[in-house]
């Protein structure tokens, strides 16, 4: 089954009649769902984010915060296999273990604190690329990754200015990072550091 450029098999998140994600409002038109999701997530992103220790549970809480008005499964890891353009993300049975691995790495590297901007960009690119490859949620991964990364960057002393973000260039950098080439993503992060 394909949804919005994603491949997924036996996708319990999608209404088989409409082929759009099941949602709290029962919307059955993709344009309506996209509009509602955009407005809702934008409003939630202007509110204070959940406090936490930059951990797996904090990451899940960030997704829940952003998408709580849209999906009943907000903040929960996906249970279906999914990929994009023939590239499969982490299988659901491995998501929690992989998140634990990545957040253990982050803790071991002191949450990327006391680094030069270049060192922070390199560590941040690795962290973001790993979160993206895991793709913990059925929807909203990029927005959750960016929101969480902004929290991490601020606490590390390298605040991010997403107003300077070029969405196409950032997406291209994320695609390159999927094959372990983080150079473009590092450059994107350096450009966003305020």
From TrEMBL:
PROSITE patterns: FIDO. The keyword Nucleotide-binding applies. InterPro entries: Fido, Fido-like_dom_sf. GO terms for biological process: regulation of cell division. It holds the Pfam family Fic. Its EC number is 2.7.7.108. Residues 54-194 form the Fido domain. Keywords: ATP-binding, Nucleotide-binding, Nucleotidyltransferase, Transferase. It catalyses: L-tyrosyl-[protein] + ATP = O-(5'-adenylyl)-L-tyrosyl-[protein] + diphosphate; L-threonyl-[protein] + ATP = 3-O-(5'-adenylyl)-L-threonyl-[protein] + diphosphate. The keyword Transmembrane helix does not apply. GO terms for molecular function: AMPylase activity; ATP binding. PANTHER family: PROTEIN ADENYLYLTRANSFERASE FIC-RELATED (PTHR39560:SF1). This is protein adenylyltransferase. It comes from Caulobacter mirabilis. The lineage of its organism: Bacteria, Pseudomonadati, Pseudomonadota, Alphaproteobacteria, Caulobacterales.
